[in-house]
Specification:
2 domains; single chain; Helix Hairpins; binds phosphoribosyl ATP; about 120 residues
Amino acid sequence: MMSPKISADILNQLYETILSRKNADPNTSYSAKLLAKGSKKTAEKFGEEAVECLIECATGNQKELITESADVLYHLLVMWVSAGVSPDDVWQELHRREGTSGIAEKAARSSDPLK
Ligand SMILES: N=c1c2ncn([C@@H]3O[C@H](COP(=O)(O)OP(=O)(O)OP(=O)(O)O)[C@@H](O)[C@H]3O)c2ncn1[C@@H]1O[C@H](COP(=O)(O)O)[C@@H](O)[C@H]1O
């Protein structure tokens, strides 16, 4: 099984590749073709892939759910590039929530009068 670090690295790596396609030739890069169409188009593609993904989940097709999930992640990264959001922005938000929103952390705070 892949470690969480390797999984996160591949997202950062793929983001950098997509970012490098921003002004690339749309005839040789699918990302460049999508990015040239603007953020409405990249959002629309993300939505389409997300719907395909949820259909595979709802119908119990685990193998297709994996491939559709990869499509969703790719299109999420394309959407971030077109909107000027970086993976670090999102990782920081996740870390912030991990420190403040966990059920266990909330319970610990509420039972500790000093918190
Ligand atoms: N991970 C992906 C990836 N996942 C999905 N897709 C593409 O996303 C598209 C989605 O499928 P669709 O059937 O909706 O495509 P379509 O009908 O051509 O869509 P339209 O844009 O015409 O609406 C397919 O053409 C897939 O090839 C991807 N295209 C590229 N990558 C990676 O992105 C990186 C850069 O790729 P290029 O930009 O092509 O150089 C490379 O590392 C690639 O491996």
